[in-house]
Design goal:
The protein is of the alpha/beta class. Helix content is about 30%, strand content about 25%. The chain contains twelve helices and twelve strands. The site of magnesium ion has 2 residues, from helix 1.
């Protein structure tokens, strides 16, 4: 299968009081073309840092400290400024958790959308088509509004339209429904799915919501403490999780007939500078080696399901009382 992104040994750090701390550490994976890949993990695990990096963006204070991100074979951090702007504007779309991060509250929707539509993009045609897909009625009325005059759900749908206007190849949606009411959440996701199907997009769905990722994605990457700890086909990872963190994350959500069990302890801060497996302070299986070295790769069923734990798969998959 073709990949749109190849991430190779990526490390991104934030400078705090003159010291660099890793938010993403030696991360490698690829994003398959035309599929939906989910990136999950609790808050603070590095999801947004990684999502922005895929656009060649680093937040203030962040530094690329190693590795590379190839988009269609080219290293996006080595592109010229002009090429990078073209890549961001035409090849990718980004949907933020908070639509106001992508929409300027004091500029009319029409002007903001026009800025996303250049070159071959026929503004009126694209707007009509996309407004219909995301079920936004009264196109002319909305185009003349300011974002502050619209509801949260309408703004998020406008930001989906904005992300899609230049017909990008990849859309990255970072917690696209977290700021919305539960009733609007599934509607927004089904619009995203429709758009993905219609245009054959590659979609990267970043979320802490395990149920949403299970339902909507083809592949899943589990991040913890800035490291990939498990990844593979969504069915395989969600139905047969191997890594203790993935198991704990799945056990922490409400499932019918099962009482959720929260994960004890907290996500580490990057300034904790945890060595070895980042999950070791919270892992009930942790032993000496876990705090000394990051584990090498282990393999689940099928070629693409992998995990990083010092324990063998057979030991991890053995039925445990606490999981029933
Ligand atoms: N601008 C910043 N300066 C310093 N640390 C940051 C900054 N942004 C994020 N971090 C830290 O980097 C880690 C990863 O953050 P983030 O990528 O936002 O995670 P997530 O999206 O999974 O919540 C967290 O420990 C967070 O506190
Ligand atoms: S490497 Fe050690 S601490 Fe990390 S998940 Fe495996 S057993 Fe737990
Ligand atoms: Mg985030």
């Amino acid at each position: 299968m073709n990949s749109v992104f190849e991430i190779d040994n990526l490390t991104i750090s934030y400078e705090i009081d003159g010291v660099f701390y890793d938010a993403i550490k030696n991360v490698s994976f690829s994003i398959p073309e035309g599929k939906i890949t989910g990136i999950i993990g609790e808050s603070g695990c590095g999801k947004s840092t990684l999502g922005l990096a895929l656009l060649g963006l680093l937040k203030k204070g962040a530094k690329l400290r190693g590795g590379k991100i190839l988009f269609e074979g080219r290293d996006i951090f080595s592109l010229s400024e002009r090429e990078r702007i073209f890549f961001r504007k035409n090849k990718t779309g980004y949907i933020h958790q908070n639509p106001f991060e992508s929409l300027n509250p004091i500029v009319k929707i029409k002007k903001q959308l026009e800025e996303r539509c250049s070159g071959d993009c026929n503004f009126r045609e694209r707007v009509n088509e996309l407004f219909e897909i995301v079920n936004l009625k009264e196109v002319d009325l909305i185009l003349e509004k300011y974002p502050f005059e619209l509801s949260g759900g309408q703004n998020q749908r406008v930001s989906i339209v904005s992300a899609l206007l230049p017909s990008p190849e990849v859309v990255i949606a970072d917690e696209p429904t977290t700021a919305l009411d539960v009733t609007v959440q599934s509607m927004i996701l089904s619009h995203l799915l429709k758009v993905k199907e219609k245009y054959g997009l590659t979609l990267i769905l970043i979320s802490h919501d395990v149920s949403m990722v299970s339902f909507f994605t083809d592949y899943v990457i589990v991040l913890y403490g800035g490291r990939v700890v498990e990844m593979g086909g969504t069915d395989s990872v969600m139905k047969k999780p191997i890594h203790p963190y993935t198991v704990a994350l799945l056990n922490s959500v409400i499932k019918s007939g099962k009482r959720p069990s929260p994960i004890e302890g907290e996500v580490p801060s990057i300034t904790d500078g945890i060595n070895g497996c980042p999950f070791h302070p919270r892992c009930k299986y942790a032993f000496k080696r876990c705090s000394e070295a990051f584990p090498s790769v282990g393999y689940g069923e099928g070629g693409d399901h992998i995990f990083f734990c010092h324990l063998e798969k057979d030991v991890l998959l053995r039925p445990k009382k606490s999981h029933v």
